[in-house]
Amino acid sequence: MHEILSSARPYMPRLKPYKPHAVALLFFALLGGLSGLLQAVRQPTNPNVKETWAVPDWSVYHVGDQRQQLAELEIWDGKKVALKVPVQVKSTWQFVGTVRKGKVFTAVIELGGETKRIQRAVAGDVLPNGEKILAVENGMLQIDANGIQQDIRLFQQEKK
Asked: What is the CA radius of gyration of the chain?
């Protein structure tokens, strides 16, 4: 300690004008520390406070005809691009799985309606909507719907 004081003595006359600033800084540091300590040890005013916030109720975003109107504007390089809207055919059946016996896969189809019957179908069978089953593989059903070939998959196939 003696060495530190002996090396600091030559600088003391230079630091004397800053003594009020150092005292004020020390005072506010002690005041802030004391305030923080008192806030930390103080009991909360109401320990039974309940969180009253709620998750916002977001409405579903609907674009409707606005998307088509925006696409038809003359701002897109002068070329109008018509959006292809897929034709929704109400299906009275749903592909729910496949079963295998030996090397032959069979599709498991849930028929619509009130009964929700389960039916098995193989390649060549005709579904209630008139679609013809072309092929059945593991997790995949290939059908011919009005001359259009469609693949219906239960899950994403792993790439090998």
From this structure: 39
d(CA 76, CA 132): 41
For 58, the 3-state DSSP assignment is coil
* Residue carrying the six token digits 């005809």: 65
Q: Which residues contact 82 (CB under 8 A, 6 or more apart)?
A: 71, 72
Q: How many helices (H) and strands (E) does the chain have?
A: 4, 6
Question: Are residues 99 and 105 in contact, defined by beta-carbon separation less than 8 angstroms?
Answer: yes
Cα 14 off chain centre by: 63
Q: How do residues 95-150 score in pLDDT, each as one tens digit?
A: 888 998 888 899 998 887 677 788 888 988 988 888 899 999 888 889 988 888 88
Q: List, in sequence order, every residue forming a beta bridge with 108; answer none if it has no partner.
A: 97, 120
Distance CA 128, CA 124 (A): 13
CB 140 within 8 A of CB 152: yes
- Show the beta-strand stretches assigned E in 2-157: 93-101, 104-111, 118-121, 132-137, 140-145, 148-153
pTM strictly above 0.70: no
Place of tokens 């004397």: 16
